[in-house]
Amino acid sequence: MKNEEIIKRIFKEEVKPRSYYEEKYPERDLKEGARVSRYAPSPTGFIHMGALYASFVSKKIAEDTNGIFYLRIEDTDQKRQVENGIEGIIQDLNNFKIIFDEGVMSGNRESGNYGPYIQSERREIYHSYIKDLLENGKAYVSFATPEELDEIRSLQEKTKDRIGYYGAYATDRNLSEEEVISRLDKGEPFVIRLKSTGDFFKKFTCNDLVKGKVEMPENDIDHVIMKKDGLPTYHFAHIIDDHLMHTTHVVRGDEWFSSLPIHHELWKTLGFKEPKYAHISPLMKEEDGVKRKLSKRKDPEAAVSFYEEEGIPPEAVMLYLMTIANSNFEEFLLQNKGKGIADFTFDFKKMSKSGALFDLEKLNNISRNYLSTLKATDIYEALLTYTEGHDKDFYALIQTYKDDTIAVLNIEREQKKPRKDFYAYSDIKNQIWYMYDELFTPETYEFDKINDKEEIVSMLETYINEYYNEADDEQTWFSRLKDVAEHFGYAREVKEYKNNPENYKGHVGDISMVLRVALTSKAMTPNLYDIVQILGKDRILKRIEILKQK
Ligand code: GLU
Asked: Where in the chain are the domains?
């Protein structure tokens, strides 16, 4: 056994052998083909769209096989922590229905047999494997200071050599056991490095599930595996975790792709079976015909909080993410009415290698469609929740007029081609404000063909006094509007008018437009009959008065 005296000095507490952990975390009892995947963020307190996308894909691939999807918190870089960072991430994910089967469930609760799931609580596990590497001469103690490392770097820059602590630059590889012991005894700060056996001039093949076969040079850098503070680096920790937690698929951001050589070497050196990798290309945005990465700084839609602010339902965001993850999903939905994400099987081969285009306009359309499939009562409940946080006045109004609000939301809903007039909860007020007397103070009216105020008022008064009957069904109501048309010299039918335009001032459509604009100020509204029914005679009279006073 190598480095015995050194190990004694480094690990003061008892370190259990690797075999202890290998037994403690046995293979999972899952059906053949079941995938185990994870989302492994650093606890920085919030997530952005790219991270939501990656976690969604990671969850979906596990779900498709009745596998396990778990949350692991990667906090070995203590500088990147924020207070309540874990809670913030879980909250964001849960809002988008990203729920984990296992792992960290809240800041102080975990579930599953493969924990702890927070890296900083796994120190003794990592130490077991680091000790093993030291014993086998596969890792070594390095005292190189930041200044020494800077010097090496400058030298490499000057000589145009590759940057890093490797080969002849990695002089601490050759320290004698005595020297290491004496420097440890003096209390010099140290790290543990991997003693790489790779050859940069040799290639290995990586079979990435998204990128396909990619050749990469072997790693030959003696990467730090344990830092001065005794915690492992990300590179080392995640390999141990993915091994002991039996991850079968590592789905993560593209930015980790270039680290594969060191990960590949660590899997080999530790004697573990390598999982499958899927490196997800960053989300892209097209601006003025140019594609660029969706940016956390520049693009508000890159923040997941944006969707909550706007009141775009999480379900719609998820449908959109599925659409950009697998372009055949849209077609699937068209061919399988009433089906959703859970009925669709994800395929890595259908993922974009160059990065999916994130198009907010398209997302909004998906949201519009999604909202059109909901029941009015469900929309009403969600609208209550939304307005409570974002528009207290409207919140109060829709509570006072609950039944009317539901009736308004129900216009042209639950039918073959439901109405799709709003894309978000924040957009509903823009579409239905005129149905509330408190809000109905129009600045302008969108009258068009008939715009003589006297004629308009006369038509409206004739309608309400002589032809309005609350009990009319839609057909009768419309035939009475035709009566009004005839009364004023307009054709009862559009066709009639078209055949003999010289005989008429216009047709019934012009009359209904007058009524529509008078009651709502808008030229475009959902079904006018429903609006008339919801308003009722008194409120219609009031609106005629408002118009007269204009
Ligand atoms: N902790 C890494 C990050 O926050 C995760 C990388 C991985 O999934 O392996 O980016």
From this structure: 4-15+123-280, 287-372, 376-424, 453-548
